[in-house]
Automatic annotation (TrEMBL):
Name the UniProt record assigns to this protein: Ig-like domain-containing protein
Residues covered by the Ig-like domain: 214-297
One Pfam family per UniProt: Ig_3
Residue ranges, annotated region (Disordered): 148-172
Ranges of compositional bias, category Polar residues: 158-169
The organism of origin for this protein: Oncorhynchus tshawytscha (Chinook salmon)
Keyword match Transmembrane helix: yes
Keyword check for Hydrolase: no
Gene Ontology terms, MF aspect: integrin binding
PANTHER family reported in the protein's UniProt record: INTERCELLULAR ADHESION MOLECULE, INTERCELLULAR ADHESION MOLECULE 5
């Protein structure tokens, strides 16, 4: 093609052939089709292991390539013109979904232990092209929450035929992973021309049984006070797998003490029971301890109340006795004065009468 620009003739080489669609993604065994076109009529043909078309007798502007079932993994259809002066290759990807996806341990843990490392492997069987495969490892908690652990993709773009792929991951479980499930997921990402959304196949799920040493959750390590005469009850609880057994270290042995697995109970606490009460939770992987510092105190309020009541009673008795004595003494004094005074008046009267009698004589 020749165009004029600023008075000069410029040669522009247009693309002689155009393929539409330029890229095909075809599932193995499915049909495929594409067109080859030219701006000007030319003799053209398709060279391919499947669906090839010989050079046309007449000049044409468009020529179709079509296959009912693609079965060649390395098929490369190419459109060409007479004499091979111009040719264009169709970009085609033939894919196959995996036969199966499975997850397993490289060496089965018996049992799985907290903090140890284990090798997981995900096997994807008979997939193509393996270079477009993305494998993701997941962990699903007991509550159903899914967490991505790792995503891997192998660089094998030159391999078109079906392959088996093995992907590995080092997994270090914690106590929170006990009861969780592990799986891997294979996604074949073939780009925008491929199926949307990209096809995904999940593996089976591995149930995890994680063993871990006990960790005491209750009653906790603290200090407390208790009144003398009350009952002390401490309940020790721990998380562990296998389930832990319990033991108690007490300040002293006492007939009022009763231990039943994780619970210790002491009735009628005395000052001698003050001290450290240590719970020990034990399983084959280790132990956990927790100490409660107990102080036995005396409640002086009833004593003070009793003493106050006794003082009040004593004061009442003393008051009553004092009042009684005073009242009796006063009463006795009143009677003596009364008895004396009448006698004195009576004698006076007698004397007066005697005087009068003497005057008449």
């Amino acid at each position: 093609m020749v165009v004029e620009q600023n008075g000069e003739h410029i040669h522009i080489h247009a693309e002689c052939l155009v393929i539409s669609p330029a890229r095909l993604v075809v599932k193995y065994g499915d049909p495929a089709s594409s067109n080859c076109s030219s701006d000007t009529p030319v003799e053209m043909g398709w060279e391919a292991t499947q669906g090839g078309v010989g050079l046309t007798d007449n000049k044409v502007k468009i020529l179709n390539w079509k296959v009912d079932s693609v079965t060649d993994w390395k098929i490369k259809p190419t459109c060409f013109t007479d004499g091979g002066q111009c040719q264009k290759e169709l970009n085609i990807t033939v894919y196959k979904l995996p036969d199966s996806v499975s997850i397993s341990y490289r060496k089965y843990p018996d049992p799985m232990v907290e903090g140890h490392q284990y090798l997981l492997q995900c096997l994807v069987q008979n997939i193509a092209p393996i270079g477009r495969l993305r494998v993701t490892f997941y962990k699903v908690s007991t509550t159903g929450e899914q967490t991505e652990l790792d995503t891997q993709q192998k660089s094998k773009d030159n391999i078109n035929t079906p392959e088996n792929g093995t992907y590995t991951l080092d997994f270090t479980p914690g106590r929170d992973d006990d009861g969780a499930q592990l799986l891997c997921s294979a996604m074949l990402d073939l780009g925008p021309e491929g199926p949307q959304p990209p096809p995904v196949m999940d593996s089976n799920r591995l149930n995890t049984n994680v063993h871990y040493k006990p960790q005491i959750t209750s009653p906790g390590c603290f200090s407390m006070s208790i009144t003398e005469g009350d009952t002390l009850s401490l309940n020790c609880s721990a998380n562990g797998n296998p389930a832990p057994s319990y033991d108690w270290l007490l300040p002293q042995a006492d007939p009022n003490t009763m231990e039943e697995r994780s619970v210790v109970t002491i009735t009628n606490m005395a000052k001698s029971h003050s001290g450290e009460y240590t719970c020990i939770a034990i399983n084959p992987l280790g132990n956990s301890t927790c100490t409660v510092n107990v102080e036995v105190t005396v409640d002086y309020l009833p004593i003070f109340a009793g003493l106050a009541a006794a003082v009040v009673v004593i004061l009442l008795v003393i008051s009553c006795f004092t009042y009684s004595s005073y009242y009796k003494h006063r009463r006795m004094g009143h009677y003596q004065l009364k008895d004396v005074l009448p006698r004195r008046h009576k004698n006076k009267h007698v004397v007066q009468h005697n005087r009068m009698d003497q005057s008449f004589m």
